[in-house]
Amino acid sequence: MIDVTSRDIDIFRCLSSGARKLTDIRDEMKKFAFDSKSNGENALRVLSDATEFSRDMTLEALRIRLKRMRREGFVQSQRYRSRTGADVFALYSLTDLSIDALVENGMEHEHIRTHLPHRYGVVHELMVTDVVRTIKREAGQLFYRFKFKDENVLKTEYRGAGMRYPDLMVTLFPDGDASKKVVAIEIDNGTISLKRVVEKAVGLFELFKVPSMILCRTARRISNMQNEFRQTFPNKDDVMAVKIFFALIQDFTHKGFVETRWLTMWDEQAAVVRLNKKKR
Questions:
Q1: pTM above 0.85, yes or no
Q2: Residue 256 in this model has a pLDDT that exceeds 90
Q3: Which of 116, 132, 159 is a domain's end point?
Q4: Is the pLDDT assigned to residue 248 strictly greater than 60?
Q5: Higher-confidence position of 228 and 176
Q6: Measured between alpha carbons, how far is 130 from 189 in angstroms, rounded to an integer?
Q7: Distances (CA, A) of 188 to 30, 39, 191
Q8: Cβ 63 vs Cβ 69: under 8 Å
Q9: E strand or H helix at 153, and its extent?
Q10: Closest Cα to residue 253, out of 17, 14, 12?
Q11: Is the pLDDT of residue 177 over 90?
């Protein structure tokens, strides 16, 4: 069994939001040397002699370390082929052993994801990882607590025929434990019909009684969704009219909950999440 070093804990933190490519892990390791603000991945970071190593770590050194940690059961990985078939790459994810190591080093279990997607779900999985990383970063900057459950966790907690699950169920505590807001986040790749998007959003509200925040890749996709929802719910007084919100995923991953431009099905701007905007 290998001795888990502070450098290894850095690697685990990089993987705590979900599956990632080798280059993404290396790039995040570099950031540890300069940014100790973000919540979750960099939170509780103790700058030590590992900082210098992290800053200069090469891809080959990281690949060798990950290979050994995989043999020892701390990391899992799987190889994938790109959609064009031209490139082959690996995704890395945590295991129970590395999760235990993170928890022992101060990270909350509710801030950790571990999952390797099937070959047709790679793009979507990486988008989910980016969304979780954004939430952690914003939480660290704006001093709010949060926890989340992804689709895989929800499937173990809620079972039944015809069940629908969001990509993420996120609980935000904008003013400490005195207040909380729960939202379902859906990351849309444009691969399912508009009718199914509406059916899923309705099903999620009926089951969890929380608003759905749908992140799309293009403004045209948002517009098409808005039209579909308005056809289904033509009355502005309908409860669903204030339970569905849309935004561009690239906007969210740059800005987080507070600064993102959220739109209703009526194309009206909405302040979906209000938090203390004071930064460190």
A1: yes
A2: yes
A3: 116
A4: yes
A5: 228
A6: 14
A7: 30, 25, 7
A8: no
A9: helix 151-157
A10: 17
A11: no
C-alpha 29/C-alpha 54 separation (Å) is 5
User: For the chain, how many residues are written?
Assistant: 280
pLDDT band at 252 (very low <50, low <70, confident <90, very high): very high
Q: Is the pLDDT of residue 192 over 70?
A: yes
Q: Are 249 and 243 in contact (CB under 8 A)?
A: no
Q: Mean pLDDT for the chain? A: 87
Question: Which whole-number Å values give the CA distances from 158 to 11, 71, 163, 166, 204, in the listed order?
Answer: 32, 33, 8, 12, 12
Task: Provide the 10 A C-beta neighbour count for residue 174.
Answer: 19
96 and 169 together in one domain: no
Q: Rounded to whole angstroms, how far apart are CA atoms 229 and 233?
A: 6
- pLDDT band (50, 70, 90) for residue 257: very high
Read off the tokens for 267: 């194309």
- Buried b / exposed e across 24-60, counting CB within 10 Å, b at 16+? bbbebbeebbeebebbbbbbebeeeebbebbeebeee
94: enclosing H helix or E strand: strand 88-94
Phi, psi (rounded to 5 degrees) for 21: -80, 165
Q: Is residue 137 domain-shared with residue 71, that is, in the same domain? A: no
pLDDT of 34 above 50: no
129 shares its domain with 148: yes
